[in-house]
Design a protein that fits this description.
This protein has 351 residues and is an alpha+beta fold. The protein is 40% helix and 15% strand. The chain is built from nine helices and eleven strands. The strands form three sheets. It has a seven-stranded mixed β-sheet with strand order 8-7-6-5-9-10-11, sandwiched between helices. A two-stranded antiparallel sheet has the order 1-2. A two-stranded parallel sheet has the order 3-4. Helix 2 crosses helix 3 and helix 5 crosses helix 6. The longest helix has 36 residues. The protein is globular and about 60 Å long. It comes from Podarcis lilfordi. InterPro entries: VASH1 (IPR028131). This is Tubulinyl-Tyr carboxypeptidase 1.
Amino acid sequence: MSSGRVDGGSGAAAHRRSEASEGVAQRDEEQEEDAEEDLRDGGVPFFVNRGGLPVNEATWERMWKHVAKIHPEGERVALRIRGASDLPKIPIPSVPTLQPSTLIPERLEAVQRYIRELQYNHTGTQFFEIKKSRPLTGLMDLAKEMTKEALPIKCLEAVILGIYLTNNMPTLERFPISFKTYFSGNYFRHIVLGVNFGGRYGALGISRREDLMYKAPTFRTLSELIFDYEEAYRRCWHTLKKVKLGQCVSHDPHSVEQIEWKHSILDVEKLGREDFRKELERHSRDMRLKISKGTGPPSPTKDRKKDVSSPQRSQSSPHRRNSRTERRPSGEKKPTEPKAMPDLNGYQIRV
């Protein structure tokens, strides 16, 4: 009897240790995924220019070496471009200047047109280093630099630029939407800026695929918007695995708060279709509730209503209400997913 109790206690202790180790492994995997999220492009690693602009010589040479690895023509394309003396001048897009009387949907189209005119960055080197932990004011300074340099951008840069260019639209709510998909042995990540105007959802962004970027604000619910992206992924043979939804972003360009990128983490396969839809609608209700209670992102109009003439930073920048512990992950703990070795010489369908 006593030995049985000892064995049972030992077994329970072993079970607790096993659960604890699984929890640590899961956290480590999530942290690893977060670290890699901005450094992978369709299973193929890409570089980030951390030396600022103008690009230094080491970063420049590394970029061209990487181009030779990922492009189907290899070194030939790099030599052809670098050796050309008569390359055409690329027109510099003008930042849209719109009248306050212009309707929000038209203003969104103009912003998206500008993002598109900057063009997608196919070099494999992201020109602007974006740290998601930076305060909003720092990211807005970076967005201003993007408009001055007018270089090609990737999807995360487009989200920051979209926030910057819509800060003067206080009736428009903005929130990040991240996608994780699977295709041909690799995981792919993409991000857009979700928008809500007049109860209708849409998105701003950039992608290699036309139907994975801009969405006019015509979707009645958040789930309709996400399902439209899912269908777009399906058309290019990608399987949607996860969706991460952030909270609304402040309209105050001087806010020292951080963007909340992952308030809801939804595992599509574990949830099932109907539960996935319910979680999406729950997230949209959470955003509406925070805004209606005044705990959401303040607009410049509300912040400076009492002192219109004052150029000082608003004293009512929103305090971050949702810590990492308040995020709502979907269902059970995520299983360990096999990480395929990137094929640097492969040229896959990337989105």
